[in-house]
Amino acid sequence: MRVKDLPARERPRERLLANGPTALADRELLAVLLGSGFRGSSAIDLAARVIDHCGDLGELGRAEAHRLLAVPGVGPAKAARVAAAFHLVRRAQAGPERQRVSCTADLAEVAGPLLRGHARERLVVIVCDARGAVLRRTTLTEGGADHTALPVREVVATVLVAGGASFGVAHNHPSGSLVASREDLEATVRLREAAEAVDLRFLDHLIVTDGAWCRISG
Question: By residue range, what is the domain housing residue 48?
Answer without folding.
Answer: 3-93
